[in-house]
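User: Sequence recovery, please. Input:
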């Protein structure tokens, strides 16, 4: 009975666990202030802002079978002032031993002045680099978010994982970062001379703050720690960080 079961299992998995890959790359012309939306289920979404008037989409599909690989589709819809990118993966099979593989890594170069009206990923990694448009909205289920040198109105939400917000330099201007993490840790790295309004709240966790010149306030009954502080005169920038279960670190990038 056991040998028959092993043969059945091998037959269902195909006896070959090699990952198959397929790469494609396409370019779409857009306006510098275009609204861009990106949707993926499992994998990565890496967005780089650049001095271009186009969107370059490079997709890397991975699966364990050619059939499954061919079922993954990168759908791009373009209209004046807007571009939508959707990585469509097939539905999960009902049979437990069926092939349910399939991830997509999307590397996307966009105009730095574009807006990301929606970036949605169920599980994996999100990278946002050098965005200067009106706004960026990103949501991740489980995984990691890294936003670097984005001088825009950032709205970052994650259910579980780690989130890092970093600036190698500081620009004067009106922009904001609103960060919400359900369970995990959030780190913010900023230049020593950065001026901003900091609001941080760890509902069940701790806050470490290199810019701390006022005491943290804590609610002992709820084990909550929070900061509401003007850093280096404040300026027009606002950074708000909330973590429900986990820790927050506000660090000087170049102390």
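Assistant: Recovered sequence (255 residues):
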């Amino acid at each position: 009975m056991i040998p028959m079961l092993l043969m059945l299992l091998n037959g269902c998995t195909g006896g070959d666990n090699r990952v198959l890959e397929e790469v494609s790359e396409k370019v779409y012309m857009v306006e510098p202030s275009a609204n861009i939306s990106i949707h993926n289920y499992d994998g990565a979404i890496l967005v780089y802002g650049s001095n271009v008037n186009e969107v370059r989409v490079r997709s890397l599909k991975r699966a364990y079978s050619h059939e499954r690989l061919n079922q993954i589709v990168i759908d791009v819809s373009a209209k004046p002032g807007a571009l939508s990118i959707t990585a469509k993966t097939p539905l999960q099979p009902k049979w437990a031993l069926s092939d349910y593989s399939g991830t997509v890594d999307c590397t996307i170069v966009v105009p730095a002045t574009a807006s990301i009206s929606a970036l949605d990923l169920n599980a994996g990694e999100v990278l946002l680099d050098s965005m200067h448009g009106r706004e960026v909205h990103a949501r991740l289920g489980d995984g990691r978010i890294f936003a670097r040198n984005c001088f825009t109105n950032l709205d970052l939400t994650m259910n579980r994982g780690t989130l890092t917000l970093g600036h190698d330099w500081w620009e004067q201007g009106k922009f904001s970062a609103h960060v919400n993490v359900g369970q995990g840790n959030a780190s913010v790295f900023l230049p020593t001379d950065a001026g901003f309004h900091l609001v941080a709240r760890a509902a069940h966790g701790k806050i470490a703050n290199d810019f701390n010149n006022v005491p943290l306030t804590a609610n002992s009954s709820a084990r909550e720690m929070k900061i509401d502080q003007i850093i280096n005169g404040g300026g027009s920038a606002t950074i708000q960080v909330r973590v429900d279960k986990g820790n927050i670190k506000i660090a000087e990038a170049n102390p």
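The longest strand covers residues 35-50.
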